[in-house]
Design a protein that fits this description.
The protein is mainly alpha-helical. The chain has two domains: about 1-110, no CATH class; about 125-290, MetI-like (MetI-like fold, Orthogonal Bundle). The chain has helices at about 1-25, 30-40, 45-55, 65-70, 120-155, 160-175, 180-190, 205-210, 210-240, 245-250, 255-270, 270-285, and strands at about 80, 85-90, 115, 120. The strands form two sheets. A two-stranded antiparallel sheet has the order 1-2. A two-stranded antiparallel sheet has the order 3-4. β1 (about 80) and β2 form a beta hairpin.
Length: about 290
C-alpha cells in the first residue's frame, strides 16, 4: 500500500512538472515577451528597445534555466544592465546583491510578483482560493441534497410519470453548460428584459463582499450543472435496489412502501453516488478553472 501511494505521488509530481513546464514555455514565447516589455515599459518601444529591455531582465536566457530558477532548484540570476542598473530575480525591494538569497523560487515560497495586480502571487492565489472555497461550499450545500432527493424520487417507481419527468430535467441540466445556463439566469433574474430584477451585483462585487444578491446566481449556475450527474447516478442505484430480493421479501411481509424506502432501500442506494460520483464532482467544482472566482 505504501509503495502504491508513493508511486501515485511520484506520478502526480511528474505530471505537475510537465504541465508547468509546458505552460512556462508557452508564456515565454517571443510574442508574449514582446507584449510584456511594451506593457511594462512603453507601448511605442522599438524592436531594439524591446530586445534591450528583455535582455536587461534576463528573459533571453535558456528556458530550462529560467524554469529551474522559477522552481527554486537553480540560483536566481543577477544581471548588470546596459543602463548600469543591477537586476536579479531575488533582488526585489531594493535588496543589496550581497545580502540577497541565492534561491527564490516555488520551493522557497516565492511565487513571484504579478505585473497585472501589482501584488505577490501567493497572496492573490490564497485570496482567490478562499473565495472559491466559499462558492464551492454553497454549491455543494445546494447541489448534493437536491440531486439526491431528485434521484431517490425518480428511482422509487421506475417508469412512472414522476420518474420520466425528473429524469428529463436531470438530462437537460447536465447537457446545458454553465455559460449557457448562466446567461439564461442573468436574462431572467438579473436583467430588465423580462422585468425580474431579483438579483444584482457582479463578479467584482462578489469578490469584495459576498451577499445573497450577488452570490445566488453563481451558486445556482454551478449547482444546476452538477446536479444532473448525481441525480442520474442516484436514480440508477435506487432502481437497482428496489428490484432486489430483500425488497421483494419486505413487500411480501407487508412492510409499508415508506418504510421500505427509508429503512431498507435508501441506505444501500446512496452508497454508489456518495462514494463515486459525489467525490468526483467535489474535485470537479474545486479544480475547474471555468467556475473559479478570479
Amino acid at each position: 500500500m505504501g509503495l502504491f501511494v508513493l508511486r501515485r505521488f511520484g506520478v502526480m509530481i511528474l505530471t505537475a512538472l510537465c504541465l508547468t513546464f509546458v505552460v512556462f514555455v508557452l508564456t515565454n514565447l517571443e510574442p508574449n515577451l514582446e507584449k510584456l516589455a511594451k506593457t511594462q515599459g512603453n507601448a511605442r518601444m522599438s524592436d531594439e528597445q524591446v530586445e534591450t529591455w528583455l535582455s536587461n531582465r534576463g528573459y533571453h536566457r535558456p528556458v530550462a534555466v529560467k524554469y529551474g530558477e522559477w522552481l527554486g532548484v537553480l540560483p536566481g540570476y543577477v544581471i548588470e544592465g546596459t543602463d548600469g542598473e543591477t537586476r536579479g530575480r531575488c533582488l526585489r525591494g531594493g535588496v543589496d546583491p550581497a545580502d540577497a538569497a541565492r534561491f527564490c523560487g516555488i520551493l522557497q515560497g516565492d511565487w513571484g510578483f504579478s505585473t497585472v495586480f501589482k501584488e505577490d502571487v501567493w497572496k492573490i492565489v490564497l485570496t482567490r482560493l478562499g473565495q472559491t472555497a466559499k462558492l464551492m461550499g454553497w454549491v455543494m450545500a445546494v447541489m448534493v441534497p437536491s440531486s439526491l432527493i431528485i434521484g431517490v424520487l425518480a428511482g422509487m417507481r421506475e417508469g412512472s410519470k414522476l420518474d420520466r419527468s425528473l429524469s428529463t430535467v436531470s438530462i437537460v441540466t447536465t447537457a446545458t453548460p454553465e455559460y449557457v445556463s448562466g446567461v439564461i439566469f442573468i436574462t431572467v433574474f438579473a436583467s430588465s428584459a423580462v422585468g425580474l430584477k431579483w438579483f444584482n451585483g457582479s463578479a467584482t462585487s462578489a469578490m469584495e463582499d459576498i451577499t445573497f444578491l450577488n452570490f445566488t446566481l453563481p451558486v445556482m449556475t454551478v449547482a444546476l450543472y452538477g446536479m444532473g450527474y448525481i441525480a442520474r447516478m442516484t436514480r440508477a442505484s435506487m432502481t437497482e435496489v428496489m428490484t432486489a430480493q430483500y425488497i421483494r421479501t419486505a413487500r411480501l411481509k407487508g412492510v409499508s412502501f415508506r418504510n421500505i424506502v427509508l429503512k431498507h432501500a435508501l441506505r444501500n442506494a446512496l452508497i454508489a453516488p456518495l462514494t463515486t460520483q459525489l467525490i468526483s464532482d467535489i474535485g470537479y467544482v474545486f479544480l475547474n478553472p471555468r467556475i473559479r472566482i478570479s
